[in-house]
Amino acid sequence: xxxxxxxxxxxxVLAIIITIMVLEIKVPHGAAFADLKPxxxxxxSYVLSFIYLAIYWNNHHHLMHTVTKVSAGILWANLHLxxxxxxxxxxxxxxxxxxxxxxxxxxxxxxxxxxxxxxFLLQSIIINNHGKDSLLAKAIGRDIKGKISxxxxxxxxxxxxxxxxxxxxxxxxxxxIWLIPDKRIETVTGDE
Length: 192
Hints:
- It is built from nine helices and no strands.
- It is mostly helical.
- It has one domain (3-24, 38-189).
């Protein structure tokens, strides 16, 4: 399989995930701005999840620029990542509809943690297939962001039952860490 097909499929799945998320925001029955107030938690959860999906889409795009051959392992690792990302609309809706209650925050963090693990596995399989001197291996280096993120997710999950707002702060912090443009892959591939 050529990597273009893998990229196109992944892009399509992510586009559908984002579409499903926005369709979950129900239109209020009233026409006053006050009628939008109950939707604030739903909208905030949507914004955070949209940012996460945008980060994954962007990083996946750069990741695929380092791939020269697609193996069965890469295909399955990519599908594993898409599986966890496909659950984002569910946990986003549950969290927003229930005003960030502890169980919803914990499950949101679990899904984010599993997606991070799946992304790490995809990176690892690509590096294993392309060698320790591959473009991706050189670009990733020590991968400080990749090592800090799971720790912050675990802290977010653990604090969800203590204070959901602290939990949310951990999830926002991870998003902010990754929102800052990461030039590692662009630098080694020349793809800017």
